[in-house]
Specification:
Helix 3 runs parallel beside helix 4 (about 110-115). The radius of gyration is 22 Å and the shape is elongated. It has two domains: about 1-15 and about 30-195 and about 210-275, Rossmann fold; about 290-340. The chain has a four-stranded parallel beta sheet. The protein has helices at about 1-20, 35-45, 65-80, 110-115, 120-125, 135-140, 145-155, 160-165, 180, 215-220, 225-230, 255-290, 300-310, 315, 320-340, and strands spanning about 55-60, 85-95, 140-145, 170. Helix content is about 50%, strand content about 5%. Residues about 1-30 and about 185-205 have low confidence and may be disordered. The chain is of the alpha/beta class. Keywords: Signal. This is Phosphotyrosine protein phosphatase I domain-containing protein.
Length: about 350
C-alpha cells in the first residue's frame, strides 16, 4: 500500500510540474460567468435553507472513486475553516451510468489517494452507496462529478420536478469559479472565519505558481491548509476558473486531483457565504420591522437587543451581542438620516 501511495505522489507531482511549465493561465479555457450562469448560482443559493445552521451535501459519481475522495476533502477543508459542524458531506454512485462499478467495495486506488491526502480512513474505506432519487429531498445540495451524471439525474424526473430540483443539483466544476462561489459577495464575516482572516498581509509573498490567478481565486487557495495548498500549487492556475472538461477525464491525473481539492474550497466558501447572507438579510428585516419611525430613534441598544431576541432567537442567536449592537447602531444612524436628515444622536 505504501508503495502505491509513493508512486501516486511521484506521478501527481511529475504531471503537475509538466503541465504547469507548458501551459499558461491566459491560454486555457478559463471562463467568465454569463448572466445565465450567475442566475444559476443565485438560484442555488436561494434554494438552500440556512435556518438549520448546517448543510448536508452529497457528491454523486459514476466510478465509486471521485465522490468518496471529494467527500473526504470537503470534510477536511470544512474542519480547517471551523465549519466541521456546518457542512456534512457524503457520497454515492449512480448505477445508471455505463461506468458504474459492479462492486460497492472501495477501490484500492481510491483508498490510496485518500490516504495520501490524509483523509478519514473510515469514510474512505466504506462500501459505496447507490444513488437514489429520494436523496434529492434528503440533502440540501447534490454535486455531480460531470454533466452526464447531472443529466441522468434530472432526466429521471418529470418536467415540473426538473425545474424544482435543478438549482440544488450542481456540477463540481462550477465551484472552481471564484465568481460562482462568491455570488453572494462579501456580506460580512462568515460564521467560520475571523474578521482578521480577511485582512491581507503586507508581508505575504504570492507564490509564482499563483501569480496568474485573480485575488478572488487566491481566496479559494487561502481556505486550504498549507499541506493542501502545497499539493495544488504546481497546477492551481490550470484549474481555477476552468470549465467542465477538467473533470471529464477517466484518469485520476494531476488536474483532477487539484480540481477536487480547490472545488472543496469553493463549496465551503459558497455555503458559508450563503448562510451568512441569509442571516444578514433576516436580521436586517428584523431591524426594519421593529425600528422604523422617529420614536425608535430614542431606543437604546440594550432595549433594542432585548426586543430583537424576543422576536427571533433563531436569527439573533447567529450573531454575537457585539455584532447585534453594531448592526442596530448602523441601522439607527441610517434611519436618523432618512427621517430627520441628521446622523448625529
Amino acid at each position: 500500500m505504501m508503495r502505491t501511495i509513493l508512486l501516486w505522489n511521484l506521478f501527481l507531482l511529475g504531471r503537475c510540474s509538466s503541465s504547469s511549465s507548458s501551459s499558461n493561465y491566459n491560454n486555457h479555457d478559463s471562463f467568465a460567468l454569463s448572466d445565465y450562469q450567475k442566475a444559476r448560482a443565485l438560484e442555488t443559493a436561494q434554494s438552500l435553507d440556512a435556518s438549520r445552521l448546517h448543510f448536508q451535501i452529497m457528491f454523486v459519481d459514476d466510478d465509486n472513486i471521485k465522490g468518496r475522495i471529494a467527500e473526504g476533502l470537503l470534510a477536511r477543508v470544512a474542519e480547517y475553516n471551523d465549519a466541521m459542524f456546518i457542512l456534512f458531506p457524503t457520497s454515492s454512485t449512480i448505477d445508471a451510468s455505463r461506468n458504474a462499478p459492479r462492486d460497492a467495495a472501495a477501490p484500492e486506488r481510491a483508498v490510496a489517494v485518500c490516504e495520501s491526502l490524509g483523509l478519514c480512513e473510515t469514510t474512505s474505506t466504506m462500501d459505496g452507496t447507490s444513488f437514489d432519487l429520494s436523496y434529492l429531498d434528503e440533502y440540501d445540495l447534490l454535486i455531480t462529478m460531470d454533466d452526464d451524471i447531472r443529466s441522468l439525474i434530472l432526466r429521471s424526473l418529470s418536467a415540473a420536478d426538473q425545474e424544482y430540483y435543478a438549482p440544488k443539483v450542481r456540477l463540481l466544476s462550477e465551484f472552481l469559479s471564484p465568481e460562482f462561489c462568491g455570488i453572494n459577495g462579501k456580506q460580512g464575516t462568515s460564521p467560520a472565519r475571523n474578521e482578521q482572516d480577511d485582512i491581507p498581509s503586507q508581508d505575504k509573498t504570492i507564490p509564482k505558481s499563483t501569480q496568474g490567478i485573480t485575488s478572488d481565486g487566491r481566496l479559494l487557495l487561502d481556505m486550504l491548509d498549507q499541506e493542501l495548498q502545497d499539493r495544488v500549487a504546481p497546477c492551481s492556475d490550470l484549474v481555477i476558473g476552468r470549465s467542465t472538461n477538467v473533470l471529464m477525464s477517466q484518469q485520476f491525473d494531476n488536474q483532477v486531483a487539484a480540481a477536487l481539492i480547490i472545488a472543496s474550497s469553493g463549496i465551503t466558501k459558497f455555503c458559508l457565504e450563503t448562510m451568512q447572507a441569509q442571516f444578514d438579510s433576516a436580521f436586517e428585516s428584523l431591524l426594519i420591522v421593529n425600528f422604523h419611525n422617529v420614536e425608535h430613534l430614542m431606543v437604546s441598544g440594550e432595549q433594542a437587543d432585548a426586543q430583537l431576541r424576543r422576536c427571533s432567537h433563531s436569527v439573533t442567536g447567529f450573531f454575537s451581542r457585539e455584532q447585534r449592537l453594531s448592526r442596530f447602531e448602523r441601522h439607527i444612524a441610517d434611519l436618523r438620516i432618512k427621517l430627520v436628515g441628521d446622523d448625529s444622536p
